[in-house]
């Protein structure tokens, strides 16, 4: 949606929910963007510093699906460090992902606060709802992959029989952690689907009828997205595509609820 029309721009950049509409030039929007990015980054840095104290513990949490899968397959649990700095890099990456989880409410608030600067007064009230919902869905997506999907994926890989009796598993800790972390972040971002659908419908960018008619294309698109964003294996692709489509249907349910609410409110008055 294009930025709303405003008559004057407030010098107070923190007043993003001002009751008086104001006109923001392109330069003013850039200033707002820099402000929001700076505040979001500041929150992430604070969370990252705090996460360093428990980074090793969270690295163990991240690698736990691999450990569980190896034990279930009856294989000795081992990870090798190919490079000297590999364990340290895994520790830092784990701390960064934990920091992303901790700071997600603040980061998503800054994102939606920037978006609200281009909305009309009656539209900004939705930002107060979508910001915490975005953070919650991001955390749910990451945890859903770590606790549910990742153990299932690793069990499939570990139990897959190639028919070679001299095959042994000796994966590197860096590659294994990267595999888990990247997919965890992909799931966290993908779980924003309901927010995007509801926001687009509420802002008038797309109609509810059009969203319903697009179901078959969305179903196909989820598998395309799964193929692009996940490693080249069917298990990971389906594991992302199916939740994505379920989330799409969840977004439609929320849109249907809002439509019924709009019909009831005029009749009640």
Features:
globular; single chain; mainly alpha; 10 helices
Describe the structure in your own words.
- The protein is mainly α and 269 residues long.
- Helix content is 73%, strand content 0%.
- The chain has two domains: 20-191, no CATH class; 192-269, no CATH class.
- Helix 2 (55-72) crosses helix 3 and helix 9 crosses helix 10 (234-268).
- It starts with 25 loop residues before the first helix and ends with a helix.
- Residues 1-22 have low confidence and may be disordered.
Mean of all residue-level pLDDT scores: 79
Q: How many DSSP helices?
A: 10
Oligomer: single chain
Unreliable spans are 1-22
Rounded to the nearest angstrom, the distance between the terminal CA atoms is: 30 Å
Number of strand segments: 0
| Count of all domains | 2
Query: Which structural class best describes the helix and strand composition?
Result: mainly alpha
Globally, the shape reads: globular
State Rg: 22 Å
Q: Please summarize the sheet with the most strands.
A: none
Proportion of residues in extended strands: under 5%
What portion of residues is helical?
Answer: over 70%
Following the backbone from N to C, one meets helices and strands in this order, namely HHHHHHHHHH
What's the layout of helices and strands?
Blueprint: H1 26-51, H2 55-72, H3 86-116, H4 121-124, H5 127-159, H6 173-190, H7 193-202, H8 208-213, H9 215-229, H10 234-268
Helix pairs in contact: 1-3, 2-3, 2-5, 2-6, 3-5, 3-6, 5-6, 7-10, 9-10
Offer a concise description of the structure.
This protein is 73% helix and 0% strand. It has 2 domains: 20-191, no CATH class; 192-269, no CATH class.
